[in-house]
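Q: what sequence does this backbone want?
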């Protein structure tokens, strides 16, 4: 900000994006493995409801509410494993990563892939399939890496 002159939106820093994605991927993989052992039914029900609402907002093309639900889906995993402070720590370092995620949702890239992966994560948690849920979460959080190049081509001036 330049007081009494102008405000500028900072560009998305891809180094910050990658660092936050790396940290989140590695921590969240641990979270879902833990959830296979200690995840109360009430949180499983919250995930199911969340996915249903994601589908609703996908059909309405309401990206803002979809983004909030996507975030909440992951937050439920942390809260359900009693790692709420870990979630807050990740959010503090994920500003640029979250900006990339929001840009992805408002672009031409489809949301159904995210919903399909969320459904897989939920089913694997129910089955307590620690190995497979670990792999799906890694794949899910690596979408940012795959789609980053598409977004850079589509919005070159948004990136540092």
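A:
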């Amino acid at each position: 900000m330049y007081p009494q002159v102008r405000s500028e939106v900072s560009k998305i820093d891809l180094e910050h994006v990658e660092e936050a994605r790396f940290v989140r991927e590695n921590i969240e993989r641990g979270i879902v493995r833990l959830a296979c052992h200690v995840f109360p039914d009430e949180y499983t029900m919250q995930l199911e409801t969340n996915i249903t609402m994601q589908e609703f907002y996908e059909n309405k093309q309401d990206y803002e509410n979809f983004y909030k639900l996507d975030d909440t889906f992951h937050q439920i995993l942390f809260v359900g494993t009693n790692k709420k402070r870990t979630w807050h720590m990740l959010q503090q370092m994920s500003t640029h990563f979250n900006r990339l995620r929001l840009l992805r949702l408002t672009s031409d890239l489809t949301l159904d892939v995210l919903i399909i992966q969320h459904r897989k994560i939920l089913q694997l948690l129910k089955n307590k399939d620690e190995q497979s849920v670990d792999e799906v979460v890694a794949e899910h959080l690596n979408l940012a890496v795959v789609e980053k190049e598409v977004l850079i081509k589509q919005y070159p001036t948004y990136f540092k």
